[in-house]
Amino acid sequence: MDGEEKVHEARLRRMAERQGLNLRKSRRRDPLALGYGTYQLVEPGSNSLVLGELAGQQGFGASLDDIEAYLRRPRADRSPDRTVTNGQSSAGVVVERVPVPEWANDLLLGRLDQADLLILPQRVRDGRGEYRDADLQGARALHAAGVRVDWAHAEPEDRTFVSEYSADVAVFVSLFVAQSLAQEGVVEVARWLLNRVRQALAGRADRKTSAPLAVQVDRVKLEGNRRVIEGLRVTGRDEGVVEVVKALLEGGPAPK
What we know:
The N and C termini lie far apart (37 Å). Mean pLDDT is 79; it is low at 80-91 and 165-169. The protein folds into two domains: 3-77; 82-249, no CATH class. It is α+β, with helices and mostly antiparallel strands. Helices cover 29% and strands 27% of the residues. Helix 1 runs parallel beside helix 2.
């Protein structure tokens, strides 16, 4: 961590404390591990997670930009989770609003006309996006099916690919819907996600206690005359996650 990042972290830690929250950083030491270098916000009284829900990482996964965006948001806009009944799981699926970091807004709004769907990195370091190598095959399959899909970072030198090493780490896919997807495109994306989910679930004896599955869907919405990006994260423990994601890709409503 460089000096500027340390100052940023210390400033956000103080900001969180003034709002009655604790800022915590993941203790993972392997730079290639999922969740390395990420953060969470916790309400100390109940020890409940406020922000940071990277699947399988005990609530970490937020960047400093994510933390700052959340802390600066008016409390009235900090929407609680919503449980969605999907008819397939008694646990249901949770859809929540998540902050979109500043780098994502700047990068994605500049690429609206270049693709229908962009695959997002799990994090950005020094301007380079770190993508999951498990998404490579999916990107090729979607392209072959006629979906205009690309990586958020257009230039190859701005992308790196890392593996999800642990068998306990669940699926975590991040997508940006740049253009309205045709129904055929929605079906292809859902098929890809379903394959990822089934691979993750294969061989799991107890899905209720296993790491959750998560898919983040970022999409454009209008606020007056301004285009902004809303971030939505879908979390669950079975294939019902894909059904909810499919509804969001079709333009379904976000949680209130």
